[in-house]
TrEMBL record:
<keyword id="KW-1133">Transmembrane helix</keyword>
<feature type="transmembrane region" description="Helical">
    <location>
        <begin position="302"/>
        <end position="323"/>
    </location>
</feature>
<dbReference type="GO" id="GO:0005524">
    <property type="term" value="F:ATP binding"/>
</dbReference>
<dbReference type="GO" id="GO:0005886">
    <property type="term" value="C:plasma membrane"/>
</dbReference>
<keyword id="KW-0175">Coiled coil</keyword>
<keyword id="KW-0067">ATP-binding</keyword>
<feature type="domain" description="HAMP">
    <location>
        <begin position="321"/>
        <end position="374"/>
    </location>
</feature>
<keyword id="KW-0902">Two-component regulatory system</keyword>
<protein>
    <recommendedName>
        <fullName>histidine kinase</fullName>
        <ecNumber>2.7.13.3</ecNumber>
    </recommendedName>
</protein>
<keyword id="KW-0472">Membrane</keyword>
<dbReference type="InterPro" id="IPR050640">
    <property type="entry name" value="Bact_2-comp_sensor_kinase"/>
</dbReference>
<dbReference type="GO" id="GO:0000155">
    <property type="term" value="F:phosphorelay sensor kinase activity"/>
</dbReference>
<dbReference type="Pfam" id="PF02518">
    <property type="entry name" value="HATPase_c"/>
</dbReference>
<dbReference type="InterPro" id="IPR003660">
    <property type="entry name" value="HAMP_dom"/>
</dbReference>
<dbReference type="Pfam" id="PF00672">
    <property type="entry name" value="HAMP"/>
</dbReference>
<dbReference type="InterPro" id="IPR003594">
    <property type="entry name" value="HATPase_dom"/>
</dbReference>
<keyword id="KW-0418">Kinase</keyword>
Length: 598
């Protein structure tokens, strides 16, 4: 019976079925859910406002504690600074300009290291009636005034504050000071005989700090600092007040994310307790600024949701059919393409709009994957070839060094000093070229290799050329690619000076340029074009300049460049690389052929 009734009630036409299903399964449940969710959102937003206010309040409290602790740490560092202690104990060893300069440098370093340093001021007075301050006072400060703690104002912090207390700001003679009181700490520095030598004062303009840091948060909020007896120490907005009930709740409430409301639900109140100062940071956020008319907002929300839902259902019915049919065709083609190893492309002609874009993207992806597979095959073959070449290169070449070492000692036994010195210089170059442990070496080491090569060539070419160096001294330990300059000098000698008997000049210039370093090798030879005509019949191709370009590209990628400028008057090669300086901790010895020391 029930089954027959259900059959009669269910529409026979598909459109009516979809409409009925949409009405009872989408629209009505959606309206109920929206109403429920709106209430949940209202509650959630209230909690989020409270949590946001609490988080902002905790940020202020943590920032204040961080500022205070770092200021205390700075005072401790001043107490242990031997340079400052010497200035305070023996000021006669320095003139006034030197003392003030040293103190100003110390204050400058402190300002750079301490966040929000503009709200922290330091005054140091020694027993010789010299006074130093981290700021320029409006009137001269009297040293003896700072030989004791400043007078406390109001109900200051308790003994847990580790010496911090509220003092009158007038004693500092701050230019343009707006805060009537400052947070102060005081320390006496004693000499070896436990006699006072200096008095250190730290002052924090906590009111200005609170106003400045609270501006980063949303408008409408007010922040207060309340002490342990319920008095308002300071506040960010004039005219904003805390009721007695609110203050009492703050003093008696929990200190971990407390949540309280003022009468009438006008504001949310959050507080954070700072044990070290016995202070409460209190935040007041007016709810009306955020919500406004909740009832009107709720009605508009529900009406808009119903309209959008109805329109969405109608449009969905119309669009779904036009989307599912093309997708089914695309799916069929994709399955065929997978079976044919990515060799089938989907025809783009019958499709339009987003489906056409999807088909085009898929075709591009299939092509890219196919190309990538081919590229991987090529790279795999290249890797196999490189691996084979690496196996060939594993034959130990150090027999060359041993042979060169034998030549060196034979020449030394035969008193042939020339051959001996050439062998030592050649050993340096050969050992550097065989070493594969380092790609980057110090500039000074690279210059030693160039001088060794130059020393060898001088024996052959005599006075045909000279080498001039222009190098900035601070670049001595800059890191450069190994053997990046020697091939350029070799090209200048063998190719640039090929048709010269004398007068050849090789200029090596190395200097800093912005964040990088420039290495230039320039000669006054015949130029690259003339040199290529001279050496066109060489069987062995030159690899020096091309080798340098490839190594620079591999090491620095787009951060470096190699520029070649050549004409009939000579050739200039300019290498620009990032500036990396790595000064050694200890200077060791550079050993070459058979342990010889440069």
């Amino acid at each position: 019976m029930l089954k027959r009734i259900m059959i009669k009630l269910i529409p026979t036409k598909l459109k009516i079925r979809l409409f009925t299903a949409s009405l009872f399964l989408i629209v009505l449940p959606f309206a109920i859910i929206q109403n429920y969710q709106f209430r949940e959102v209202e509650s959630l937003v209230m909690n989020q406002i409270n949590e946001l206010n609490s988080n902002q309040l905790y940020q202020l409290a943590e920032g204040f504690e961080s500022l205070r602790s770092k200021a205390s740490l700075t005072m401790f560092q001043y107490e242990k600074d031997f340079v400052l202690m010497d200035i305070w104990q023996h000021p006669e060893l320095y003139n006034e300009r030197e003392r003030n300069g040293l103190m100003e440098e110390k204050f400058r370093l402190t300002r750079n290291q301490l966040p929000a340093s503009s709200y922290v001021h330091y005054v140091i007075a020694d027993t010789h009636e010299n006074i130093y301050s981290s700021y320029t006072p409006a009137k001269p400060l009297q040293p003896k005034t700072f030989w004791k703690q400043p007078e406390e104002v109001g109900a200051g912090p308790s003994q847990q504050s580790l010496g911090w207390r509220l003092v009158n700001s007038n004693s500092l003679n701050l230019d343009g000071a707006t805060s009537p009181s400052l947070l102060s700490n005081f320390s006496v520095v004693q000499d070896q005989n436990r006699m006072p030598m200096a008095y250190i004062h730290i002052f924090i303009d906590y009111e200005a700090w609170l106003r400045a840091n609270s501006q980063d948060f949303s408008t409408g909020q007010s922040y207060f600092i309340v002490n342990q007896i319920g008095e308002t120490v300071t506040q960010t907005k004039r005219g904003s007040l805390l009721t007695e009930e609110t203050v009492r709740s703050v003093l008696n409430g929990e200190r971990q994310y407390p949540y309280m409301e003022e009468p009438g639900m006008t504001s949310t109140i959050n507080s954070v307790f700072i044990p070290s100062m016995q202070w409460y940071f209190v935040g007041k956020f007016p709810i009306s600024l955020f919500f406004g008319d909740l009832i009107g907002l709720k009605r508009k929300f529900l009406l808009t949701s119903l309209i959008i839902t109805s329109v969405f259902i109608g449009i969905t019915l119309l669009i779904s059919g036009s989307i599912t049919r093309p997708l089914q065709r695309v799916q069929k083609k994709m399955l065929e393409m997978g079976k044919n190893n990515l060799k089938i492309q989907i025809q783009e002609q019958p499709y339009k709009g987003e489906i056409l874009t999807f088909v085009q993207s898929f075709n591009r992806m299939a092509t890219d994957i196919k190309d990538l597979v081919e590229q991987l095959k090529i790279e795999e073959r290249q890797k196999e070839a490189l691996h084979f070449q690496m196996l060939l290169n594993q034959i130990d070449p150090h027999f060359l060094l041993n042979t060169l070492n034998t030549i060196k000692w034979v020449s030394l036994d035969q008193n042939n000093q020339t051959v001996y010195e050439i062998s030592v210089a050649l050993g340096r170059l050969l050992e550097a070229s065989l070493s594969s442990e380092q790609d980057l070496i110090h500039l000074c080491k690279e210059l030693e290799l160039i001088r060794s090569y130059e020393y060898i060539q001088k024996y052959r070419f005599k006075d045909m050329f000279e080498t001039r160096y222009t190098i900035e001294s601070e670049l001595e330990y800059a890191l450069v690619p190994k053997l990046c300059l020697q091939p350029l000098v070799e090209n200048a000698i063998y190719h640039g000076f090929a048709n010269m008997q004398q007068g050849g000049i090789v200029d090596i210039r190395i200097y800093r340029e912005r964040q990088g370093m420039v290495l230039e090798v320039q000669d006054n030879g015949q130029g690259i074009q003339s040199a290529q005509q001279t050496t066109a019949r060489r069987q062995r191709k030159g690899i020096g300049l091309e080798n340098i370009k490839q190594r620079i590209q591999l090491l620095y990628h787009a951060e470096a460049s190699v520029e070649v400028v050549s004409d009939s008057c000579g050739t200039l090669v300019r290498i620009t690389i990032p500036l990396l300086i790595a000064a050694p901790f200890l200077e060791g010895e550079d050993r070459f052929v058979d342990g010889s020391v440069s």
